[in-house]
Design brief:
Elements lengths: L6 H5 L6 H13 L8 E5 L4 H7 L2 H5 L3 E6 L7 E10 L3 H9 L12 E8 L5 H8 L7 E6 L5 E4 L2 E3 L5 H6 L5 H22 L4 E4 L4 H19 L2 H5 L4 E7 L14 H8 L7 E5 L6 E5 L5 H6 L4 H19 L1 H4 L10 H37 L2 H13 L12 H9 L4 H15 L3 H11 L7 H10 L12 E2 L12 H8 L3 E2 L1 H10 L10 E2 L70 E7 L2 E2 H14 L3 E5 L2 E2 L1 H10 L3
C-alpha cells in the first residue's frame, strides 16, 4: 500500500464489505502518520471493537504502531513516542485524554511527545472548547472525525451494540425529550454508515411508527450535514435505499426458534453480544472462550445453513475428508528415521495449519452436538412445530389453522423450560389474540413461575407497539418449503416443517427489490423528484464471486452430497492442510452494484433477519445490509421486555 490513499481511492475499492471498507478507511489514516516516529494507539470501549473487527496487530506494525492500550487503564509514559487517541468524542473519554497531558496529575512526567486525536464521530462545540483550553492543544498534530460510530459485525451487518436500547426508547417514565435525544444519537451513528458506503440514501420508513418517522427525519438531516463537507457524498447518485423499521414491524422473529446454524447457536448456546462463545471442553471443567467471527472460515461457510442435515452431516464429511487427505499428519507415523529431512521440513511447515483446522472442526462439531442435545432435551421439534403453525397460520399439511390451544396443552405439561413456554404463549397471543382475562388462565395452565410475573412481559409488548388483544399478526410462509414433506430424506423433510416462517424483513426486501414495496406502509421521507426503481437486470448471482456464506435456502434434494461444493483443500492430495487457504471456505464476497439497500431496525435485530439480508443479496445481486441498535436473541429480547417497567 502506498504511503497515502486519497478519499477517491477509498471509494473506488472493489469490496463493498463493511468490514473491508472500514479497514481501508483506517489504513488510510494510519498511512498519514509520520514514519520517523513510533506510536502508541489508545482506544476506549467504544472504538476497540470497531478496530479489532477490521485490523490486527500486524496491520498496525507497518505504520510504526508499537503498542495498543486502553484509555481508562493506567498506562506507562512514553515521552519519546507519539500517541494516537482513537476514541469517542464523549465527555468521559475526552476528560481522560486530557488527564494524560496534565503534569500535576502525572507528577510532572510527560506521557507522550505529540498527539493525534481521531474521534469516531462528531465532536460537540463544548468538547472542542475544552480541548482548546487544555494543555494538549500545542501537542496535537492531527484532529479528525472519522465517522466510524458503528460496529461492523460482518460483511453486511452492523450494530451500535447498545444492550439498553429498548429502555432508552420505551421504558416506563421515559420523557419524550430523552427518547428524542437517543433517536438523534442513533441517527448520527447511522449517518456514519453512509459516509463509509459513500452514499446519500433515499429514506423510507415504517409509517405506523412515530419513532421511525423521527429516525428517518433525523438521519436525513445528519447525512445532509456530512454531505455539506464531503464532495464525494454530494456527487453520489441517489441509488441507495435506507429502510427504517422498529421492533413492532415483526414481533414474531425474536420469539420463533430458527434452525440455521448461527441463529440456533445464539439461541441455545452461551454466546455473548461480543460474539464470544463460552464453553467447557470435553476433558476439563475449565471454561474456554472462542470468537465466532469472519476470521473463522468454518463458521462463515455454514452459519446460514440448516443445522440438519446441511451443517451436521456436511461438517462430519468435511472433517473426515480433511483427516484422510492429511493422513501423513494425522497418523503421527512420520519419524526422523523414516523420512528425509526435506520431507520432514514440508510436514512441519504444514503442521500449524493442520492443527488449527482440526481445532476448528472439533469446535464446530462439539457445538452442533451440544445444540442437538438441547434440541432433544427441550422437545424443540414439538415446540417448533406449533410455533411454525401459529406464525404462518397453517398446519404442517398446509391447512388453515383452527383452534391450536389444545395442541399447546401437552407442551405446557411436559418438561419444557419456562422461557420456551413463555415464547409459545407470546406467539399465541400475537398471532391469535386473547382477552386479558383469558391470558391469566393461560398462564396458570402453563404453570409459569408467578414470581417471574409473565403478565408483565405481555403488557410490555404494548409499550413497543405490539397489541395482543387486537388484530392477529402472521408471518409469511416460505413457498420453498411446501410440498417437500414427500422427500425420501426424512430428517431433512422434518426439519423443513420447522422452518416455514420467514422474517418480515425478507418479505420487505423481496418487495423492495422488485419495486413492489407499498409506499403507503413504507413511505419516503422527502420523496425523490422522479419515481425510483431498481433495475436489477443482469445483477444475478452470476456476476458475483464465491458466495458460500450467502447460501441459506434448502439445497436441491436432487443433487447428491458428493456434488456439493467443497473446501479448496479437497482433491489437492496432501498438498496443504491450510483452511486459511480461504478462497472458497470463508470468502464472503459482497457484489458491487450502483444500487444498495440498508435496513435499519430500531430496538434490535435478530440473527434470522440478518440471514435474510444475505439471502436477498444472493437473490438480487444488489448489496443489502442490515443494522440495528443491538442484536437480539430470544433470551435477551425477553429480558429487555421484562425491564421496561422496572
Amino acid at each position: 500500500m502506498s504511503s497515502s490513499l486519497s478519499s477517491n481511492a477509498l471509494q473506488s475499492q472493489s469490496s463493498t464489505s463493511l468490514q473491508q471498507l472500514v479497514r481501508h478507511q483506517l489504513l488510510h489514516h494510519f498511512s498519514q502518520l509520520p514514519k520517523t516516529l513510533h506510536h502508541t494507539l489508545v482506544v476506549d470501549p467504544t472504538t476497540v471493537a470497531s478496530l479489532s473487527s477490521a485490523l490486527n496487530l500486524s496491520d498496525l506494525l507497518q505504520y510504526n504502531v508499537a503498542l495498543i492500550e486502553k484509555l481508562f487503564l493506567k498506562r506507562q509514559p512514553f515521552p519519546q513516542m507519539g500517541v494516537i487517541y482513537l476514541i469517542a468524542a464523549s465527555e468521559s473519554s475526552v476528560e481522560r485524554m486530557l488527564e494524560d497531558w496534565d503534569l500535576a496529575t502525572n507528577k510532572g512526567r510527560k506521557m507522550y511527545k505529540e498527539a493525534y486525536v481521531w474521534f469516531s464521530g462528531r465532536a460537540s462545540d463544548a468538547i472542542m472548547t475544552k480541548i482548546k483550553s487544555s494543555r494538549i492543544l500545542p501537542h496535537i498534530q492531527q484532529l479528525k472525525e472519522l465517522n466510524l460510530e458503528y460496529l461492523p459485525l460482518e460483511a453486511q451487518l452492523f450494530s451500535f451494540r447498545d444492550e439498553s436500547d429498548l429502555l432508552k426508547l420505551y421504558r416506563q417514565g421515559l420523557e419524550e425529550n430523552q427518547r428524542k435525544d437517543y433517536v438523534l444519537l442513533c441517527a448520527e451513528k447511522l449517518a456514519s454508515v453512509f459516509a463509509t458506503l459513500g452514499d446519500v440514501p433515499l429514506i423510507r420508513y415504517q409509517k405506523d411508527s412515530s419513532l421511525c418517522a423521527l429516525m428517518a427525519e433525523a438521519t436525513k438531516a445528519k447525512v445532509n450535514v456530512l454531505a455539506r463537507y464531503n464532495s464525494q457524498l454530494r456527487k453520489a447518485p441517489n441509488k441507495t435505499i435506507c429502510l427504517i423499521v422498529d421492533r413492532s414491524n415483526d414481533p414474531l422473529a425474536p420469539l420463533t426458534h430458527e434452525f440455521t446454524y448461527q441463529a440456533m447457536a445464539y439461541d441455545l448456546l452461551k454466546i455473548g453480544s461480543d460474539m464470544v462463545y463460552t464453553f467447557k471442553s470435553a476433558n476439563s471443567d475449565e471454561e474456554r472462550q472462542v470468537l465466532l467471527n469472519e476470521q473463522d472460515p468454518v463458521w462463515v461457510r455454514y452459519r446460514h445453513k440448516l443445522i440438519v442435515p446441511d451443517v451436521r452431516d456436511a461438517l462430519k464429511e468435511e472433517a473426515t475428508e480433511f483427516k484422510n487427505s492429511n493422513a501423513d499428519l494425522s497418523s503421527g507415523s512420520f519419524t526422523k528415521d523414516s523420512a528425509s529431512t526435506r520431507k520432514l521440513g514440508k510436514i512441519m511447515h504444514r503442521l500449524p495449519d493442520y492443527q488449527r483446522t482440526t481445532q476448528l472442526y472439533s469446535l464446530h462439531l462439539t457445538m452442533i452436538n451440544d445444540m442437538m442435545k438441547i434440541f432433544d432435551e427441550n422437545r424443540l421439534a414439538h415446540v417448533a412445530l406449533q410455533e411454525q403453525n401459529m406464525t404462518v397460520n397453517q398446519d404442517e399439511e398446509g391447512h388453515k389453522l383452527s383452534n391450536i390451544l389444545p395442541k399447546l396443552g401437552p407442551l405446557f405439561r411436559e418438561n419444557v423450560p419456562d422461557d420456551i413456554k413463555l415464547r409459545l404463549i407470546l406467539l399465541y397471543l400475537i398471532t391469535q389474540g386473547m382477552t386479558a382475562k383469558n391470558q391469566d388462565r393461560l398462564f396458570k395452565v402453563a404453570k409459569l413461575d408467578e414470581e417471574e410475573d409473565p403478565k408483565r412481559i405481555v403488557d410490555n409488548l404494548a409499550k413497543i407497539g405490539v397489541n395482543t388483544d387486537k388484530k392477529p399478526v402472521f408471518g409469511k410462509l416460505k413457498s420453498l418449503i411446501m410440498g417437500v414433506g414427500k422427500s425420501k430424506k426424512k430428517d431433512f423433510a422434518e426439519m423443513l416443517t420447522l422452518c416455514r416462517f420467514q422474517p418480515k424483513v425478507k418479505e420487505m426486501l423481496d418487495d423492495l427489490l422488485n419495486n413492489k414495496l407499498s409506499t403507503n406502509e413504507y413511505p419516503y421521507f422527502d420523496p425523490p423528484s422522479s419515481a425510483f426503481s431498481f433495475d436489477t437486470k443482469g445483477l444475478g448471482s452470476g456476476n458475483r464471486g464465491p458466495a458460500d456464506s450467502l447460501t441459506l435456502d434448502a439445497p436441491d434434494l436432487s443433487v447428491s452430497r458428493s456434488k456439493r461444493k467443497r473446501p479448496s483443500w479437497v482433491d489437492k492430495k496432501k498438498k496443504t492442510a491450510n483452511v486459511a487457504e480461504k478462497e472458497e471456505l470463508s470468502t464472503n464476497t459482497v457484489p458491487t452494484s450502483e444500487y444498495k439497500v440498508v435496513v435499519f431496525v430500531v430496538g434490535g435485530a435478530t440473527w434470522s433477519e440478518a440471514r435474510s439480508v444475505y439471502e436477498a443479496t444472493q437473490d438480487s445481486g444488489v448489496p443489502c445490509y442490515m443494522g440495528s441498535t443491538s442484536m437480539l436473541t430470544p433470551k435477551s429480547f425477553l429480558e429487555k421486555l421484562e425491564e421496561l417497567d422496572i
